[in-house]
């Protein structure tokens, strides 16, 4: 499994409080038409903790069926329960996922040994390429470089979605792991994709590409092809948008931006809420300024 380029962390569109499965199909087609390299279903941006077991299974079935092998499909399967993570990973494999994304166990804050043993248990009981998701701001635990080295030695663990925001850690991960073996670093922060790729990363698992897959893909492809000046120009052009879609809790801003631009998104589910009106207006101004939304 080659992991590189732009993977979109798909939102879950809602209509009248229910999952909009036709909207999901429409959004996937929009992504593939505009050049993304892969799709992530049931990640953080999908509001997965707010979905029922039935909804998660149907999203996998419809999402993987809609992609129909045109690009790889990654499915979020992580949990604070090792047993639940194993079962979700097995289910993703059964449904046809190409890769499982597994987040650091959250809330219960395991030690580095506990993190290592969780991933070891998943690898021993499943057979699918796995990407580790390091996002300490949400989980309460950072995966230290020494632990990541141990994880990289486990069969089927192919890389990390790195959303710690810690550039020093990312450099050390590349120097001690990725420079020596096939272990991919994917940016988990849109605003850090350019610097992470400059330091050896291979792409991004992106929130921004829900709305602008073509522009994010152009920047990432320029970096992969060593067209640094072009990529830098796109990075700075898009930086206000990258910042804007995180001015409130993800995915409220990106869903609001998609609604403004006529893409299926709908509301967020509680406990998330719609953006405050003043921030919604700031986001609209960014979209107009970047010619993402035509001024009305």
In short:
This protein is an alpha/beta fold and 296 residues long. Helices cover 46% and strands 14% of the residues.
What does this entry look like structurally?
It is built from twelve helices and ten strands. The model has no long low-confidence stretch (mean pLDDT 96). It is an alpha/beta fold and 296 residues long. The strands form two sheets. An eight-stranded parallel β-barrel has the order 1-4-5-6-7-8-9-10, surrounded by five helices. It has one domain (5-225): Aldolase class I (TIM Barrel), CATH 3.20.20. Helix 6 (145-152) runs parallel beside helix 7, helix 9 packs antiparallel against helix 10 and helix 11 crosses helix 12.
Structural class: alpha/beta
What CATH architecture label applies? Alpha-Beta Barrel
Q: How would you name the CATH homologous superfamily? A: Aldolase class I
Shape: globular
Q: Whole-number average pLDDT?
A: 96
Structural key phrases:
46% helix, alpha/beta, eight-stranded parallel barrel, 10 strands, 296 residues
List the helices and strands and how they pair.
Elements: E1 5-9, E2 14-15, E3 18-19, H1 21-33, E4 38-41, H2 53-67, E5 73-76, H3 82-95, E6 99-103, H4 112-125, E7 130-134, H5 136-139, H6 145-152, E8 157-162, H7 167-178, E9 184-187, H8 193-198, E10 203-206, H9 213-224, H10 228-244, H11 252-260, H12 277-289
Parallel strand pairs: 1-4, 1-10, 4-5, 5-6, 6-7, 7-8, 8-9, 9-10
Antiparallel strand pairs: 2-3
Helix pairs in contact: 1-2, 3-4, 4-6, 6-7, 9-10, 11-12
């Amino acid at each position: 499994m080659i992991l590189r380029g732009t993977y979109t962390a798909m939102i879950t569109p809602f209509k009248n409080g229910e999952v909009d499965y036709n909207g999901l199909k429409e959004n996937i087609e929009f992504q593939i038409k505009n050049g993304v390299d892969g799709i992530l279903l049931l990640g953080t941006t999908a509001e997965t903790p707010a979905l029922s077991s039935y909804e998660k299974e149907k999203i996998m079935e419809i999402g993987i069926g809609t992609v129909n092998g045109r690009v790889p499909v990654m499915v979020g399967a992580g949990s604070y329960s090792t047993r639940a993570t194993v079962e979700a990973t097995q289910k993703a494999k059964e449904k046809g996922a190409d890769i499982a994304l597994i987040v650091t166990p959250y809330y219960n804050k395991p030690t580095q040994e506990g993190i290592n043993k969780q991933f070891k248990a998943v690898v021993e009981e499943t057979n699918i390429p796995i990407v580790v998701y390091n996002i300490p701001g949400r989980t309460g635990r950072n995966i230290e470089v020494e632990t990541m080295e141990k994880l990289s030695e486990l069969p089927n663990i192919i890389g990390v979605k790195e959303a710690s925001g810690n550039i020093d850690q990312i450099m050390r991960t590349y120097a001690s792991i990725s420079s020596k073996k096939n272990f991919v670093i994917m940016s988990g922060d849109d605003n850090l994709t350019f610097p992470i790729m400059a330091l050896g990363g291979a792409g991004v698992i992106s929130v921004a590409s829900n709305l602008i897959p073509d522009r994010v893909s152009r920047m990432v492809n320029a970096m992969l092809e060593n067209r640094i000046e072009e990529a830098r120009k796109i990075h700075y052009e898009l930086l206000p948008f990258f910042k804007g879609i995180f001015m409130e809790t993800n995915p409220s801003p990106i869903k609001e931006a998609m609604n403004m631009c006529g893409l299926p998104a709908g509301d967020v589910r509680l406990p998330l809420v719609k953006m405050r009106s003043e921030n919604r207006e700031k986001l609209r101004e960014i979209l107009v300024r970047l010619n993402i939304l035509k001024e009305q």
